[in-house]
Amino acid sequence: MVEILKADLHLHTAEDRSESIEHNAYRLLDEAHSQGFDVISITNHDMFTFNRKLCEYAGKLGILLLPGVELTVEGRHVLVIGELSGIRQVKRLKDLYKLKREQTLLIAPHPFFPASRGLGKSLFAYLDLFDVLEYSHCYTRLINYNRLAVRVAEKEGLPMASFSDSHKLWQIGRSYSLLLGDRTHEGVLSALRSGAVQMVTRPLGPLALIRTIQWIVPGLVGKLLDNTLKRGSQKHTVPEFTETIMDSRNAG
Ligand SMILES: [Zn+2]
Ligand SMILES: [Zn+2]
Q1: What is the pTM for the complete model shown?
Q2: Which of 67, 178, 183, 237 is most buried when burial is the number of CB atoms within 10 A of its CB?
């Protein structure tokens, strides 16, 4: 049955120990439920936060939980949603073509946001790889790096979707997407792919901007220091996977 689905497919939780996040996946699901979300995906960095128990918990709340991950490939972030088999073999951006299939969605998150690990100019070499470009939550009325992403999406006929990239609970619900599709793994992916998406997003106001800077800047400084210390010893981040993946169609 086709319905309007409130969706956020870019969310982080405390299970990702590379980030300092207070809420775990269950607390996130509670918050998503309280805000009436129908579909979410937990996209922690280079790890899976998805298992049967979590799926069952989401199912009880009426939420469809899709497997997801925010992969770091060649130092760039890529969201992979849905069927994740074969992901361990991805070492280079070109390896992502092996994941290009109906049950897997490839999203370019925050593509042109500076100081993030967005694809930036690399996106132009891989435009045929991505199903969707993300409209990043992080912008103000004056400064909005999504404008270039919108131009690229329009020129290339690529759909866009807005998600929260939440690291804090207060961020959830600020940017999300309404999808027109079936409440199933396949229905959600096909709605996004076909552009049956309405973005619901608003620029950061002064208070939200201050709160965002408060958590983003210390994190960036920490990562820069970390990268400087590691420089020379590591060319690319190689994903580590700490949770077992399972086919979402067998659960939730
Ligand atoms: Zn990212
Ligand atoms: Zn993210």
Answers
A1: 0.88
A2: 67
Report d(CA 124, CA 168) in Å as an integer: 31
Q: What is the Cα 211 distance to its own chain's centre?
A: 20
Structure tokens at 33: 């439920």
The rounded Å distance from CA 164 to ligand 2 centre is 8
Q: What is the pLDDT of residues 5-55, one digit of tens each?
A: 999 999 999 999 888 899 999 999 999 999 999 999 999 999 999 999 999
Q: From start to end of the chain, where are the E strands?
A: 2-11, 39-42, 64-66, 68-73, 76-82, 104-108, 132-135, 160-162, 175-182, 197-201
Rounded to the nearest angstrom, the distance between the alpha carbon of 159 and the centre of ligand 1 is 19
Please name each of the domains of the chain with its CATH number.
Answer: 2-250 (3.20.20.140)
Chain centroid to CA 132: how far? 11
Å from CA of 44 to ligand 2 middle: 7
CA of 11 to the centre of ligand 1 (A): 10
Which residues, chain by chain, have CB under 5 Å from ion ligand 1? 77, 109
For residue 11, the ligand closest to its alpha carbon is 2
pLDDT tens string 150-201: 999 999 999 999 999 999 999 999 999 999 999 999 999 999 999 999 999 9
Q: Which residues pair with 21 in a beta bridge?
A: none
Region at 20 (left for phi over 0; alpha for psi -120 to 50; beta for the rest): beta
Burial 100-111 (b: 16+ CB within 10 A, else e): eeebbbbbbbbb
Q: Report CA(44)–ligand 1 centroid distance (Å).
A: 9
